[in-house]
Write a structure and sequence with these properties.
heterotrimer, A mainly beta, B alpha+beta, C alpha/beta, B: alpha+beta, ABC transporter involved in vitamin B12 uptake, BtuC, Neuraminidase, 4-stranded antiparallel sheet, 19 helices, C: alpha/beta, Rossmann fold, 6-stranded parallel sheet, 6-stranded mixed sheet, 12 helices, Sugar ABC transporter substrate-binding protein (chain C), carbohydrate binding (chain C), Peripla_BP_I (chain C)
């Protein structure tokens, strides 16, 4: 009751309850349907990360490492290896050397069939979310969180996780050097023109610039206030970058993140698949939480309805300023884009939510 | 956890948060704050000034209130019309002069003097009225100019007559009586004032001239478009102001017997203060006589008390000026923010705990299947919002749409349809009487009956008002479903009394028992409320014993049984509890049991939210309505249960494209017809083990005569 | 008796009686009237209801009354209606309810408080009216005789502006509040004299409501219409500063004979010295204050009922011209406090 009276007085005096606001999808982020309209290259269930090779891609999908070759008569998918658990990231060096990690056994470097394990502390090894080879041969890695494994990213979000870090391993598996820590789930890493690194910090919805040389310099934000959670970053032609964003931000989710009592009880008593929060795909399960605007009216789900998942790929220029974007909205299926890759001037996106590898058309081709 | 839950439950049962929001919806709420301020001021003054509440003091106050109050009412009338009258002070002075000249100088009888005074006031008011009403000049500037003109006239005439006025005193008994007389200690002028105030209040609030006045003040263009003669109304408002001011002047002259050069100077400011303090909005259209009187009393008490406490005169004026500024500021903020406050404060969620239940997927009876996947689609896009479906003896299908029509699909293939009747609102529940009339609950309107030839008659749109409810619950806001007892009585549910049809989703967020069960008796033609405080009562069906009925309480996920006749009359018990979803309509099945439509499924997160009322309140205030957590009504199903409440099977649309949410189902000759309030089609599906000859009219009324 | 016994007796008498003799000096007699005078008034309530506080007349009277209240130990209070007749009426009405022992009333006009003062007397409250009368006569009146002031002012003007004496025979009159005692009775006095001198022409008679700005504007207009104005009669020095400034601005300070009246404040006297006023009729506020105090003391001690015996005193006037501006005729507020 006192809350009502204080809110009455505050309203009378002109203060309004500060709402929970998220950046609107505007300007370069104006929603469109380009992801839905994109051509599909191939269907791979559980597709997560992609790395370019000379004649195609390498993809990680669940526990399998696959090679996708692009030929005149379509794409050919070939299984290269099956590992002991879900692969959490995949990176490829120009000379064909690969790096990947699984939750159970941690980091491996080498080639299929000839893997060398790299010893890392267990709490880091089980949550390696992204990696990138630097020109000098060293491997930089993102650890999403030291408190939760990679598959428990939802729990880390709900716990306001800020235990992620970025480190580099010298070539020949030498020393490990910590470049930045205390990050909120770093989920993408790419090297910039000047030798520094761009790291996407998901829970703080921004992209940071991490210095490789001087460690005392704190990471500076390059692109912040994103309307969705950023995932892996890939280099693009003409010095730009491609940013995949795997799940949307919503007012309700932001509110849950500050409502401690509700959130704690939700985490303790309810299965993570039924939590109120972002997800990689829409589920048809009747046990799933719903938002009022997502109710189907007259048989139609409006594209702007609030949804738990969303498909978003953004191309940025060299200074990480967005220049164009591809969307898949509430009424689409190609959500949960976790990785992108540009090869031969064409952009490819991995939609984990739909399990599809997509060929994104360019603006010049005029498809909207 | 359990203790804190119990405390939470207790807190929400005892403390009635909803009252605050409901009070804010009332139109008289604007007066509450001035009354409170008045009460506080009187209290303070009684403490500071000994002997404040003596009869003599009150009688004096009464006389002053009489004069000030009449002018305050005059100004209220003008402000209600959307204008302002700054010339009241000068009109007051002129009419005082008229009254004194008539009585003291000319010595005419008191009746003539009264007529002359009121006449002068009328002329002054009409001048204002013609300038502002007919010539469309701005009220502020115009009355400012007439203020100057009238005062100039007064300044010219008064000195010439001054000596004559003060030289003699009239010898009229009535004159003295008005000025000084008391009846049982109450001054005569106060009684005159009360009589006039009552008349004006009744005219303003309950009669057409008053409504027209408020309409013109509140929204001039709309009033014009509605056919109100705006110019005449405005002119009459100023004329009324002039006459009332003249009456006040008459009382003043009787009391004082003389006038000075400063009569009426600054009066408009004091009266304006009083009127604004009393809650009359300067923007027009809002205010009342009561408010003006409260403001007058407040201002008089304040200024009298300040003089009484020997406060220097200039400080007196300063204090009154500060009070005026504060009152105007408050008024502006209140008007601007009242709607906003109301919308934020009205939603008052409460604690609702549902029992735990296992996941739907793990229950063999309730697991998702696709039995409705290939339902025949009827009327896709032709009907929008078919909440309930019903079939007559010939097998024709009827349903209500959100365009206010009842649409009939023709048997046997239902490919053709026509509009059977135009009712209005959104017809929801449907039922056939013994004679074949279609009775329907129309959301937003009431219960209506359609005869077989398509003529619409009203059955009822009101019920008895409960004494303790702040909301006027004699009106029906959301009558949802109905059923007809063997003796013709119509039992129907009203889902919620706090929200309109368009906001039913907010009631889900509240989880309060805002609904009720009503009964219309055709023998007496009246409707009575039987049960109150039900949690969104929805589907109703009369049991086969003819003495009890089942009703669904949607957000509580249960179906209750209520006996309305027989030895158990009045008894209410739970029929089936802890349903996996939210029950909407309940109808009879051919195997002796019942069909229940679950319009959505329970989700753990929403169940948790129902146990956290504070969370829901913050959610309602802080984030947009589109983003609120909601029950999953994108997936619904139909369940069939036996006559004792055991669920035997469930029917789903697996991918949720055709029938995501089902609000009603009817069995007819082996088929099940499906309706959904957010859908744009009706579905028909064959039920394998249903009696192929069974129809509802036969089950209810036996064979046709 | 032996000589030694006599000497011893005398010694004893000396020892016994001398101290008595030494103490028994003449200490005088207690004056019961003085004791009564200083004691009887204790705890009584006197309320002053002026036109308004904040100008010389009322501040002067209030200072005097306060002095006596402190000296004789009774309560003195002021209710200030700030020039509003309506507020004053309401204050008087509430005073009637409160029943103080004595009200000192300053009437805005002769009718407004009339009935109320009669009621106050009926309720047993003693009333003194100061300087501005009403139609009701109460226990006492102390103040100027306005008729007399009017006559004196008119005589002075006639003296100056009669046939052949001044530049013309035109006279302007500015009044204050048409229904106040200062207006109605003063005009009567003025016209009694002027009626006997028909050659004097009254070219303007307007009310200024005690507002110097209005007085100035009126005189400015009059001078434009009648540049050969000879005399002007104003009813109060505080407002006639405006009249005077209009005359000075038109450069007719020597031509126009301005008569005014007031309480005799030093400011008014200085205006006379400066030549703004040609004749100043003073009703002498300190003198009025003293008489007022005497009446207050008398009435408070009197056993008579309120209104039973009605007294009045019109105090003598002092005519001040440039030559007799002096300390005795002119007062400042500091002198009185």
């Amino acid at each position: 009751m006192s809350g009502l009276i204080t809110s009455l007085m505050r309203n009378l005096l002109g203060y309004s309850d500060t709402g929970i606001s998220i950046p609107p999808m505007d300007n370069m982020f104006k929603p469109n349907n380009r992801l839905e309209a994109a051509k599909i290259v191939t269907r791979i269930d559980g597709l997560d990360d992609i790395a370019p090779t000379t004649d195609g891609f390498l993809c990680s999908a669940r526990d399998a490492l696959l090679r996708v070759s692009l030929g005149p008569d379509g794409a050919r998918v070939e299984k290269l290896d099956r590992l002991d658990g879900a692969i959490t990231f995949l990176a490829a060096r120009a000379d064909g050397e690969l790096a990947l990690a699984t939750e159970k056994r941690g980091l491996r470097i080498g080639r299929p069939g000839a893997w060398r394990s790299v010893e890392l502390p267990e709490d880091q090894a089980r949550c390696l979310t992204a990696g990138c080879f630097l020109p000098d041969g060293s491997l930089t890695l993102c650890v999403g969180s030291v408190r939760n494994p990679a598959s428990a990213w939802k729990r880390d979000l709900m716990q306001h996780g800020a235990s992620g870090c970025v480190f580099s391993i010298a070539p020949d598996c030498g020393s490990v050097r910590m470049l930045a820590d205390g990050l909120g789930f770093p989920y993408g890493i790419v090297s910039l023109e000047d030798g520094a690194l761009a790291v996407s910090e998901s829970w703080r919805h921004r992209v940071l610039r991490v210095e490789t040389e001087a460690k005392s310099v704190r990471p500076a934000p390059m692109l912040s206030n994103l309307p969705a959670y950023p995932a892996r970053i890939a280099p693009s032609a003409e010095g730009g970058y491609l940013l995949a964003l795997f799940a949307p931000r919503r007012q309700l989710f932001e509110m849950i993140l500050i409502e401690d009592e509700y959130r704690m009880e939700m985490m303790e008593t309810i299965d993570p698949s039924e939590w109120v929060g972002p997800d990689l795909r829409q589920t048809d399960d009747p046990d799933q939480p719903l938002q009022q605007g997502s109710v189907r009216q007259m048989g139609i789900l409006k594209p702007w309805a609030p949804s738990r998942s969303y498909g978003l790929v953004v191309r940025c220029d060299a200074s990480m300023t967005p220049v164009e974007s591809w969307h898949s909205r509430a009424d689409g299926t190609r959500h949960g884009i976790t990785a992108t890759c540009e090869r031969g001037g064409v952009v490819f996106a991995a939609s984990k939510g739909a399990g599809e590898l997509l060929h994104l058309s360019d603006e010049r081709e005029g498809a909207q | 956890m359990a203790v804190s839950d119990m405390l939470l439950r207790l807190r929400y049962r005892i403390v009635p948060d909803r009252l605050f929001g409901e009070l804010l919806t009332k139109s008289w709420i604007d007066n509450v704050i001035p009354v409170l301020v008045l009460a506080v001021t009187v209290l303070v003054m009684t403490v500071l000034i000994p002997g404040y509440l003596s009869t003599g003091n009150m009688a004096d106050l009464g006389r002053q209130v009489a004069e000030f109050g009449l002018i305050a009412i005059a100004l209220t009338i003008v402000i209600l019309s959307g204008g302002i009258d700054l010339s009241v002070g000068s009109v007051f002075a002129l009419t005082v002069l008229t009254a004194l000249v008539c009585m003291n100088v000319l010595g005419v009888p008191i009746g003539v003097a009264l007529a002359a005074t009121l006449g002068v006031g009328l002329v002054c008011g009409l001048l204002n009225g013609v300038l502002v009403g007919y010539l469309r000049l701005r009220a502020f500037i115009t009355t400012l100019v007439t203020l100057v003109i009238f005062r100039a006239i007064y300044d010219i005439v008064f000195p010439k007559l001054a000596s004559a006025i003060v030289a003699s005193m009239p010898s009229s008994f009535l004159w003295d009586y008005i000025g000084f007389g008391n009846v049982v200690g109450i001054p005569i002028s106060f009684l005159i004032f009360v009589a006039i105030a009552l008349v004006v209040h009744i005219v303003l609030s309950r009669m057409r001239p008053g409504w027209r006045l408020r309409a013109v003040g509140g929204a001039r263009r709309s009033a014009f478009n509605a056919g109100i003669n705006v110019k005449l109304t405005v002119c009459m408002a100023y004329a009324a102001s002039g006459v009332l001011t003249a009456m006040a002047a008459f009382l003043f002259s009787a009391r004082l017997g003389s006038t000075g050069a400063d009569t009426g100077i600054g009066l408009e400011i004091v009266i304006l203060t009083a009127v604004v303090l009393g809650g009359v909005s300067l923007g027009g259209g809002r205010g009342s006589v009561g408010g003006a009187i409260i403001g007058t009393v407040l201002v008089l008490i304040l200024s009298n008390s300040l003089i009484r406490m020997a406060v220097p005169g200039s400080l007196n004026q300063l204090i009154l000026g500060v009070v005026l500024v504060a009152a105007v500021l408050f008024d502006v903020k209140w008007v601007k923010n009242r709607g906003k406050i109301l919308s934020k404060v009205y939603v008052s969620p409460t604690y609702l705990a549902l029992k735990e239940r296992p996941r739907v997927a793990e229950d063999p009876v309730l697991a998702v299947n696709d039995r409705l996947g290939d339902a025949q689609q009827i009327g896709v896009g032709a009907v929008e919002g078919p909440e309930d479906v019903i079939l007559d003896r010939d097998g024709n299908l009827y349903t209500g749409t959100r365009h206010g029509n009842i649409v009939r699909f023709f048997a046997p293939d239902y490919n053709t349809h026509e509009i059977f009747a135009r009712v209005g609102g959104h017809p929801l529940g449907l039922a056939f009487t013994r004679d074949g009339d279609l009775v329907t609950c129309v959301g937003g309107m009431g219960v209506y009956r359609v005869t077989p030839d398509g003529t619409v008659h009203k059955v009822t749109d009101e019920t008895n008002r409960s004494a303790l409810s702040i909301i006027d619950d004699s009106r029906l806001r959301l009558p949802d479903d109905l059923d007809i007892a063997p003796d013709g009585r119509i039992f129907f549910s009203e889902a919620t009394i706090r929200y309109e049809m368009s906001e039913w989703a907010v009631d889900a967020l509240e989880g309060r028992g805002n609904g009720r069960l009503l009964c219309f008796d055709p023998k007496t033609g009246t409707t009575r409320t039987l049960l109150r405080g039900l949690v969104f009562p929805n589907g109703i069906t009369v049991c086969r014993d003819g003495q009890s009925l089942l009703f669904a309480e949607t957000w509580a996920c249960r179906i209750m049984r209520y006996w309305f006749d027989g030895p158990n009359k009045g008894k209410r018990e739970t029929f089936v509890d802890n349903l996996p979803g939210y029950p909407d309509n309940v109808n009879r099945a051919s195997n002796g049991g019942y069909w229940v439509a679950l319009l959505g499924m329970r989700t753990k997160t929403f169940d948790l939210a129902m146990r956290k009322p504070g969370f829901r309140r913050r959610m309602a205030k802080r984030i947009a309505a589109d983003e609120w957590l909601f029950p999953n009504i994108n997936r619904g199903c139909v369940i069939r249960m036996t006559a004792d409440g055991t669920i035997t099977d469930s029917y789903w649309d697996a991918d949720g494209e055709k029938h995501p949410s089902i609000t009603s189902m009817r069995e007819h000759k082996g088929y099940l017809f499906l309706g959904g309030v957010s859908n744009n089609r009706i579905g028909r599906v064959r039920i394998a083990d249903a009696d192929p000859d069974w129809t509802a009219p036969d089950d209810y009324w036996g064979d046709a005569e | 008796m032996s000589k030694s016994l006599l000497i011893k007796l005398m010694a004893v008498a000396w020892v016994v009686f001398v101290p008595f003799a030494a103490q028994a000096q003449n200490k005088g007699l207690e004056n019961p009237r003085s004791t009564a005078f200083h004691g009887e008034l204790e705890g009584k309530n006197v309320v002053f209801l002026p036109l308004s506080m904040g100008f010389d007349l009322t501040e002067g009277w209030a200072a005097k009354m306060r002095q006596q209240a402190e000296r004789l130990n009774y309560n003195f209070e002021i209710r200030d209606p700030a020039w509003s007749t309506d507020a004053g009426t309401r204050a008087l009405q509430s005073l009637i309810g409160e029943k103080p022992d004595l009200i000192v009333a300053h009437n805005p006009d002769i009718q407004s408080y009339a009935r109320l003062l009669a009621r106050a007397q009926a309720e047993g409250i003693k009333v003194i009216q100061i300087n501005l009368e009403s139609n009701t006569q109460t226990d006492s009146y102390v103040g100027a005789d306005w008729t007399e002031i009017g006559q004196q002012a008119a005589l002075a003007v006639v003296d100056r502006c009669a046939e052949g004496k001044g530049v013309s025979s035109k006279v302007a009159i500015d009044t204050g509040v048409p229904t106040a005692a200062s207006d109605v009775f003063q005009l009567d006095g003025i016209y009694r004299v002027l009626d006997q001198h028909p050659e004097i022409e009254v070219v303007s008679q307007q009310a200024t409501e005690y507002n110097p700005e209005k007085a100035r504007a009126i005189m400015e207009t009059v001078l434009q219409q009648h540049p050969d104005l000879c005399g002007a009669i104003g009813i109060w020095d505080n407002q006639d500063t405006g009249t005077a400034s209009a005359i000075q601005q038109a450069g007719k300070g020597d031509q126009v004979f301005l008569v005014t009246s007031g309480g005799g404040n030093m400011v008014g006297c200085e205006n006379v010295s400066k030549g703004l006023f040609s004749l100043y009729i003073s009703y002498n506020v300190p003198l009025q204050g003293d008489i007022l105090n005497a009446e207050i003391a008398r009435l408070l001690r009197s056993d008579a009922d309120a209104g039973e015996m009605k007294a009045m005193y019109f105090n003598p006037l002092t005519l001040i011209t440039k030559d007799d501006v002096n300390q005795r005729n002119c007062w400042t507020l500091e002198d009185l406090q």
